[in-house]
Amino acid sequence: MDFDLTSDQEQVRKLARDFADREIAPGARERDRNETFPADVLKKMAPLGLLGGPVPEEYGGIGLDFIGHALVTEEIGRADSSVRTTLSVQISLVELTILKFGTEAQKRRYLPKLCSGETLGCFGLTEPEAGSDATKIRTSAKRDGRDWILRGRKMWISNGSVSGMALVFAQADPAKGHRGITAFLIDREESPYGSQGLHGKLGLRSSDSSELILDDVRVPADAVLGEVGEGFKIAMSALDSGRYSVAAGAVGVAQACIDAAVTYSTQRQSFGKPIAGHQLVQEMIADMVVETEAARLLVWRAGDLKNKGRPSTRETSLAKLYASEAAQRAADNAIQIHGGYGFSDEFPVERYWRDARVNRLYEGTTQIQKLIIGRFTTGVDAMS
Description:
Layout: H1 7-24, H2 28-34, H3 39-45, H4 66-79, H5 81-101, H6 104-116, E1 121-124, E2 140-144, E3 147-158, E4 165-171, E5 181-187, E6 194-197, E7 209-219, E8 224-225, H7 231-267, E9 269-270, E10 273-274, H8 279-307, H9 313-338, H10 349-357, H11 366-378
Helix pairs in contact: 1-4, 4-5, 4-7, 5-6, 5-7, 7-8, 7-9, 7-10, 8-9, 9-10, 9-11
């Protein structure tokens, strides 16, 4: 792996950084306070190609490699994790999954609209009683002639209420267990599904989180993504992709915590000097820097494998586990350095702490990542 970024990677990093500083960060506090979905931000991102970074140009993206994709995701996450979550779902869970498993017709139909922002997508896997164990989903898919009828509920679906299409997983043959799960692409205009927004979240308050309501939603045969019964495999591949962007976004949160802590500690005075001059404050900042650099390198290593087309599930889990935990520790230290002010939204570090918390939950909890890493290390599946 070459640790020097290419000129293209440097350019897209600068593009994302400048956009994040100019268009995302200034409104983050108010969007968080008011639970305002960042629709205006997304409209400005689309013309820059940031809604379809790693998608090939022929389908409406800008063809970034996975290191470039991570750099964009980190910069967006540094400014506002709510925007980053919306972006991660749009690209990693929906677009890249269609790119990998879709027919040519499905790619042509959905990807250009998703990359341009004309359509927002959502990923419907989690259910009220099925989270980490996706094999237990209850949403059903039954044939009716050539069509399928979907019935069930999905929970904690990012972009659910604002989506124009959904990638949904349903059980088509309960007798086959997880081998009966099938993936469907649902056009909301042609096959209307309901949604109910979820509020009162600890963090990510300006991202849309919803319940999806599938009451006898009829979809045509060509809505199946992949083959019937391949849904579980498709879902696991999508989550692997999603974990990569969560990890990159967590690095962004950690970097934001460093930036905020350095700014505050070099200005705040105590005992006759800036608090940055106190050894224990420097220790906290040093810990943040070391862990953030380590997390970033783990993300880049996973991205390097993805660029080479090599298996990267283990390395992606390592990056997601470490980066999400490191971001939480960085946010905690940043609040400590800010003292009482860190407990107020006058400064952004309390939002960083709240937003960082969910990284340890979605796209596979910290404990699920440890099970994956343990399985790769020992050869024994603790989940079987």
